Amino acid sequence: MRDQSTHIVSGYDTDLKSLTHALTDLGTLVSEMVEGAMRAFKKRDSVLAEKIIARDSDANKRQHKIDEDVQRIIALRNPVAQDLRRIIGATRIASDLERVGDLAEGIAKRALLLNEEPRIDMSKSVYRMGKQVRKQLSGALDTLLKEDAISALHYWQADSDIDDLYNSIFRELVTVMMGDPRTIPACAELLFVAKNLERIGDHATNICEAIYFTAKADQLINDPSLAPMMQDPGVRKTL
């Protein structure tokens, strides 16, 4: 009986580790997609953009596999407490990562369209926003590996900076279009790229929320240290 119990525990641990590795692999894939999409955007590299678009199907398959693994673990292992939170969190995180892949694919598609338009100076601002978003996403994924609630809180709060960047770029692009209607096609595509980046930042914060809940058994919105921020509807996060 003891040997059987040991085997069951060992198998459970293996399942949990495999789930974490699958999440990490998906995170690495979509992070590379975001980086590649922004490099294609900056370099006006249509070949690279096409490669990023093609990788989205792999991200979708990985997310579906994680969902299947979660269902199997719940059915076979009957997890409770932190294990259950970790497993449910894996589903939430996988969904957010899959959406990041979709958004990276969207940026690559916009890069292809931008290659048909004259380059405008605002492209540099959008690329700088992309660097900030990639930093936030990388931080969220590192937090996932460490299951570090404090780091999750830090990267969650950083999303307001990305929102400010997006709003600034939006205003500048509108001004450029009003000043020269010939720039409207390129500026419109840049707006889509910037919006996709802003949404990637949102998904990075969702990942931080899931990590925090797994570690603390509480929602970030209930953290008393966030009370001043929560009073501002402009930065309040909805779980």
Plain-language structure description:
The chain has 239 residues and is mainly alpha-helical. The chain is 84% helix and 0% strand. α2 (46-77) packs antiparallel against α3. It contains eight helices and no strands. The chain has helices at 2-43, 46-77, 81-114, 122-146, 149-157, 159-179, 184-216, 227-230. It has a single domain (2-230), classed as Methane Monooxygenase Hydroxylase, Chain G, domain 1 (Up-down Bundle), CATH 1.20.58.220.
Number of separate structural domains: 1
Number of helices: 8
Radius of gyration: 20 Å
Beta fraction of the residues?
under 5%
Low-confidence parts, pLDDT < 50 over ≥5 residues?
1-8, 230-239
Percent helix, as a range, is over 70%
Secondary-structure element sequence?
A: HHHHHHHH
Looking at CATH, the homologous superfamily is Phosphate transport system protein phou homolog 2, domain 2
Question: Gap between N and C termini, in Å?
Answer: 44 Å
Structural class: mainly alpha
The CATH class assignment is: Mainly Alpha
According to DSSP, the number of beta strands is: 0
- The appropriate CATH architecture is Up-down Bundle
Shape: elongated
**What does the main sheet amount to?**
none
Determine the mean pLDDT.
88
